[in-house]
Amino acid sequence: MSEQAKIMQDIHTIVMSILKTGTATIEEADEIDRLEALLDEQKCFKEINHENHTCQGEEIASLFFSDNYDKALNKMLECEISPEDFFGFVEYYYDDEHEDEELTEMFTGTFKRGVNEAYKERPDS
Length: 125
Description:
Order of helices and strands: HHHHHH
Radius of gyration: 16 Å
Strand content: under 5%
Shape: elongated
Largest sheet: none
């Protein structure tokens, strides 16, 4: 499991605890803030200088959204982002408030398996 996946799992665990109790403790809130700061340091969340995208994961997602499959895979390899981390980023980043949230419906189980297989077949992976 990657560092990004562990951070997201820890956030999920805290959120589920908060949902179960109906309230967040100060410690839980502080821990979520700490984990989100760590998440911002991960490759998918790395800020880029691009007029349409704020981070590497968003750029890769937009390549998939615009049917540039090979370019998206190449960008994942270039940025050293695994499919697991990319799809974890998508689930976390594209929430109900994100303008492109509906586009993420293209990332079905079959699509994810295809990306995983294609990623593994690339010579640089």
